[in-house]
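One such shown below:
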Amino acid sequence: MKEYDLILASSSPRRHQFIKQLGFNFIVISPDIDESVKANESPYEHVHRLACNKCHSISLEHYNDLVLAADTIVVVDNEILGKPKNQSDAKAMLLKLQGREHEVLTAVCVAKAGKQKSFVCTTKVVFAPLSEHIIDEYLKTHESDDKSGSYALQGIAAMFVMEVKGSVSSVVGLPVAQTRELLEDFGLFYKFTG
């Protein structure tokens, strides 16, 4: 008998936490795929393709296991803001986001034994106006270093957010309610561990 319910194809600590909160035992196998944007690919198509490619790459070796993969991107003016290359890149992203609304798209893909289902969750986030000073101070924390769009809603950057329209957990990295429903389609149900 296996000691895990699913394989999480993600190294994200936030996704690990959400899957633990659902009460599932899981192992992590991080996929190694090309995440570059293809020519003429929309943000929706891009994030969906990445989540499905991650899931597929792990499912190939673990065909009979339940595999869950996800990808999150930040989009403003139809431009994908990925993880910053450096501090100046992070600052440029935050300057684009400040004082306006942007979208966070998280795609989730689940597969087992040749069956695959996926979805994309879109959440709108409104940032307060930000001075260069507050952005510079935020960057000193290095919270932005490995985050899409250079911020973490669940961290210090919460002070930038005026409004969230949609799934808060999706902005953090996994739309938990929708993911729970998707896992139920594969026969995996929430386990209360209290």
The two ends are 24 Å apart (CA to CA).
